[in-house]
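Tutorial handout. Part one gives the primary structure; part two gives the three-dimensional structure as tokens.
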Amino acid sequence: MSAHDQMRAMLDQLMGTGRNGETSRYQVQFNDPKVCKSFLLYCCPHDILASTRMDIGECPKIHDNALRADFEKAQQKFDHYYDVDATEHLQAFISDCDRRTEAARKRLLETQEELTAEVAEKANAVHELAEKIGQTLAKAEELGAQGLVDDSLKLMGEIEDLRKKKSEAEDTYRNSMPVSSYQQQKLRVCDVCSAYLGIHDNDRRLADHFGGKLHLGFIKIREKLSELEKNYEERHEARRKFDEQERYKRDDKKSHRSRSGDRNERHRRSRSRSRHSRHRSRSRSRSRTHKHDRRDRDRRRY
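Part two.
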């Protein structure tokens, strides 16, 4: 994106579609059904997961920063209940992701060597510690990038303790099964983003995963959905009542226009009949006058 395009996008986001007296380049308003309501609320998965392994392409609905600015201004005056639409959108998306995660787990059960319940529990202990190390390392690196060195060093100290626990858990797991089986890569599926994680993945690989755009994007989506779901039922019911009131108003206006139209039509017909009656009256009057004039001429003739 050029500097000119970036500047235009910033102005659109700040001032909306009317910044130069112009309308949206899509020739729609923010309340048009073709506009993505999740985008207006900063939670469209198509944007959040762009350029990741699970990039789902461009959203089929319109994304426009100027329309978002228009919506934010209008929302201050009037509640549009777009959080209900966004909740339903994210619920459908996360449900689909969870189905894929469950399908991936089933495929692992079919393809990987089956473990006894005791060994599986020990393997899960290694997985959980490894994931905790990866998450903590990603967080420490983030704090370091923000200049919070002391907080970052504190987390690095926690990581050392976790590494010791992981080493002990790996020894316990290794001693519970044959060496040939231990060398096989035991995988598990990330509950957040459905990516595969291996039991032998190193700390760097795990940190890259937990600090990566894909995993953090799914965290953002899931957190936003949890936030929206808190008041979903209440908001959904409020919008239903609002829609009913708006429908009654439209029906009442339509009925009023219909009654007004009927009155106008009756008035038009009445005026038409009146004009027709006056026309007939004038015609009869002219006819009588003509007859009288003709009789007068006949009398004078004789």
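Part three, for discussion. DSSP finds eleven helices and two strands in the chain. The longest strand covers residues 187-189.
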